[in-house]
Amino acid sequence: MAIWVMANLDVGVFGAAGKMGAITCQAINNSDSMTLCLGVDSNQVGTLIPNTSLQIQGTVESLEGIDVMVDFTVAEAAMENLKLAAQAGVHAVVGTSGINEEHVAELTKIFTKSNCIVVPNFSISAILLMHLSEIATPYFSTIEIIEFHHNNKIDAPSGTALATAEKISQNMTEDLRDPTTDLALEGARGAKAQGNIPIHSVRMEGMLAHQEVIFGTTGQTLTIRQDSSDRSSFMPGVLLAIKGVPNLTGVNIGLETLMDV
Q1: One of 149, 167, 210, 243 is an active-site residue; which one?
Q2: pLDDT at 261
């Protein structure tokens, strides 16, 4: 997808004091095609955002002058922030965990004057993992997903794992069959996603974000794995989403809507 970029985008970040929000502020500040104009977070109110003259605000009532808002908060707060953006005609990039189908349905109703992209994973390599997994699917009879994240992640399975299962299931002719009938421990075979694909979630100190998709058929297996070891790995995807969301229409899901995959 060719992306036409406005001469300069004025951007606001919600969750600016969080781990993803703070590094997003830094990435925007280092970009030649956008300007950081607003940082909002209930924590560290009044603190200067590094390398800027902007103070973090606790709340905002207006998004006047903002072209794109980025949200890295929590689902409940994000929905309120996104209502404000939709009312103001401001485009939105959503990286908040826990945005579900009901949330997306509500966003679709309210984003009539501007666009919104909900991104489960900003890692370009993770998007390519999903694409390659979808291609591999017809050639294998068994498929399982293992996702690994840091031990402070509150939701499981990850949005990326669920999105991967959905893409894989779209390229399956029938649901997977699990022959296991005797479970010594409940949940030992993972949670079953679309297509009856098992997802196993690991939460581990020392990890950030990783995923494996394992395919098997007669006498052979294929493992596709993606690793993000530092949050800076997400910034090319975040900036791509900010630049690209004005070119979209309505509410969109996934960074792949801006990539030729």
Answers
A1: 149
A2: 81
CB-based contacts of 69, cutoff 8 Å, min separation 6: 11, 12, 13, 14, 38, 63, 81, 85, 90, 91, 92, 93
- What SS3 class is residue 254? coil
Could you give all domains of the chain from N- to C-terminal order, each with its CATH number? Answer: 9-118+232-258 (3.40.50.720), 124-229 (3.30.360.10)
Neighbours of 86 (CB within 10 A): 22
Neighbours of 100 (CB within 10 A): 10
Question: What does the pLDDT look like over 24-64, one tens digit per residue?
Answer: 999 999 999 999 999 999 999 999 999 999 999 999 999 99
Candidates 83, 150, 153, 192; catalytic one: 153
Residue 150 annotated to the active site:
no
Q: In degrees, to the nearest 5, what angle opens at C-alpha 250 toward C-alphas 246 and 253?
A: 90
**Residue pLDDT, tens place only, 132-160:** 999 999 999 999 999 999 999 988 999 88
Query: Does pLDDT of 15 surpass 60?
Result: yes
Catalytic-residue membership of 149: yes
Best CA proximity match to 52, nearest among 68, 65, 34 = 34
Dist CA 67 CA 229 (whole Å): 31
Q: If we measure between CA atoms, which residue out of 72, 206, 190 comes closest to residue 142?
A: 190
